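Dear H.,

Thanks for agreeing to be a second pair of eyes. The structure we're designing against is below in token form, covering all 497 positions.
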């Protein structure tokens, strides 16, 4: 089979999509074997033939206890597993099943898919990024690189809508809000800032709608709308359908309930729904404001606000952004496809995109407090978050004890000065000659490449010795190469449909 070229995958919380770049240079979504452009990121574990059902059939059909939704929310949790029929599945493995379906089914249209770019939320941490790359490997893919979702979307808008200048990408999906401010000038895209909120998106709106339905049902029927997870899931899906209709209609009517407590007809208006989620939407506005503040921009400095993510179809979203920026935001229409389309363009690398680093990297050091003169143990940031990459930055420290023979530098990820609130992602140790006094200069240098990979170097001035390591998150939940190989083989022989 021919080989597919320039493939991008948006592995989303609620839906995933795969796109490729056509020979004429335009990106296009490749449908799955069910004929759908968006594949629900849902896995159903069939109990009869052991088939793993992925997509709409999984979302709409089966027993909720055997159905896995929103696995992406757990990609950064090394201890999270889905327990099914005595077997434990990690978020990485579940994600690999979704990717396997896309690879298998889309390959029939594009030719064999192997090299891909996968998108991740800008605020995914090291562990979640690593887990995403591993999910790709388990599905038999070579993940050439990860790209932040808003960067991919911006590339799509820049290329297809001819948008340039200072752009704010407002991406409200199923699970997360991502805000990115970037500058597009001809072929160059410079990311100024990427911020976001985990756990703020369409599934929160679904919960709000479920509450409205439950409350109304209680009023009408004097009973609870659902009494088990299966019923709750069904009501959530009904609510989600109503939510989508309310993006087009002012009023909808839902029929809910059950045989024992009775059926209720509940009228829902767009106004009621939008008012109920106003609190969450206001939070997104505040986050947008904070993002602009961080790069010293006023709303009037932003040339275009662009919409990404299925939840931006809610009319109130465009309204609040128009109020905030004094001009209507731009929507390309296919707001839930543009991340995958941009990822495909990324795979083709038709434009030069410069990104920023997603995390601060630093080290633990004893620092004298400016006001009290007291020595305190602090996280000292060497590369601050949102520094344009590739970059390399250094800090020089002095040793604090006599006769130190081993200089150890703990590599931290996180912004907080308090060491308790940052992650230790690595350690670098350098043996130095004995018999030295305190006060020797040690320089720590971190460099960040365009693939968000980080290297650390430690240099001891007195001895001239140095050591250089790649920072690899090897903590709990990260699979060894042997594990990856074994699991890839295992996943290959399970039936995915
Ligand atoms: N017409 C619509 N009106 C309101 N919400 C919608 C509409 N269409 C889709 N959504 C919501 O959009 C969300 C899915 O959006 P999208 O596919 O962009 O998210 P995702 O990429 O899976 O999530 P994330 O980007 O957070 O990982 C769902 O919560 C869905 O209910
Ligand atoms: Mg998305």
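And this is the sequence the design step returned. I haven't edited it by hand at all.
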């Amino acid at each position: 089979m021919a080989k597919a070229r320039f493939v991008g995958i948006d592995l989303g919380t609620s839906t995933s999509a795969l796109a490729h770049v056509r020979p004429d240079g335009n990106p296009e979504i490749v449908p799955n074997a069910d004929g759908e452009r968006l594949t629900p990121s849902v896995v159903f574990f069939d109990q009869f033939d052991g088939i793993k059902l992925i997509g709409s059939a999984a979302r709409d059909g089966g027993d909720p206890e055997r159905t896995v939704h929103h696995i992406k929310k757990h990609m950064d949790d090394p201890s999270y597993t889905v327990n099914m029929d005595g077997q434990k599945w990690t978020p990485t493995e579940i994600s690999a099943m979704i990717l396997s379906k896309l690879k298998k089914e889309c390959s029939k249209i594009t030719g064999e898919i192997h090299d891909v770019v996968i998108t991740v939320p800008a605020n995914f941490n090291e562990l979640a990024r690593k887990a995403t790359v591993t999910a790709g490997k388990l599905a038999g893919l070579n993940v050439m690189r990860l790209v932040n979702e808003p960067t991919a979307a911006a590339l799509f808008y820049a290329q297809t809508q001819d948008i340039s200048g200072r752009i704010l990408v407002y991406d409200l999906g199923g699970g997360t809000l991502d805000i990115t401010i970037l500058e597009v000038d001809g072929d160059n895209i410079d990311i100024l800032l990427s911020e976001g909120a985990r756990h703020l998106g369409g599934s929160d709106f679904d919960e709000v709608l479920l509450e409205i339905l439950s409350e109304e049902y209680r009023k009408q029927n004097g009973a609870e709308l659902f009494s088990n997870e299966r019923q709750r899931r069904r009501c959530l899906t009904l609510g989600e359908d109503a939510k989508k209709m309310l993006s087009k209609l002012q009023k909808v009517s839902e029929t809910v309930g059950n045989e024992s407590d009775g059926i209720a007809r509940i009228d829902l208006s767009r106004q009621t729904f939008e008012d109920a989620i106003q609190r969450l939407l206001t939070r997104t506005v505040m986050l947008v404001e904070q993002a602009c503040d961080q790069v010293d921009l006023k709303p009037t400095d932003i040339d275009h606000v662009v919409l990404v993510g299925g939840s931006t179809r809610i009319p109130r979203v465009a309204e609040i952004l128009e109020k905030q920026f004094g001009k209507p935001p731009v929507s390309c229409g296919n707001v839930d496809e543009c991340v995958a389309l941009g990822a495909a363009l990324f795979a083709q690398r038709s434009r030069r995109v410069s990104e920023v680093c997603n995390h601060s990297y630093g080290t633990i050091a004893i620092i004298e407090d400016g006001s009290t003169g007291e020595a305190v143990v602090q996280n000292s940031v060497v590369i601050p978050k949102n520094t344009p990459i590739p970059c390399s930055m250094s800090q020089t420290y002095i040793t604090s004890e006599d006769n130190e023979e081993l200089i150890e530098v703990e590599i931290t990820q996180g912004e907080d000065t308090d060491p308790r609130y940052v992650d230790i992602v690595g350690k670098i140790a350098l043996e130095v000659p004995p018999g030295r006094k305190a006060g020797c200069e040690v320089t720590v240098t971190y460099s960040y490449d365009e693939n968000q990979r980080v290297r650390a170097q430690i240099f001891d001035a007195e001895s001239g010795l140095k050591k250089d390591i790649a920072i690899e998150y090897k903590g709990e939940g990260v699979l060894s190469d042997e594990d990856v190989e074994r699991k890839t083989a295992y996943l290959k022989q399970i039936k995915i449909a």
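Two observations from my side: The longest strand covers residues 188-197. Residues 91-110 form the longest helix (20 residues).

Warmly,
E.
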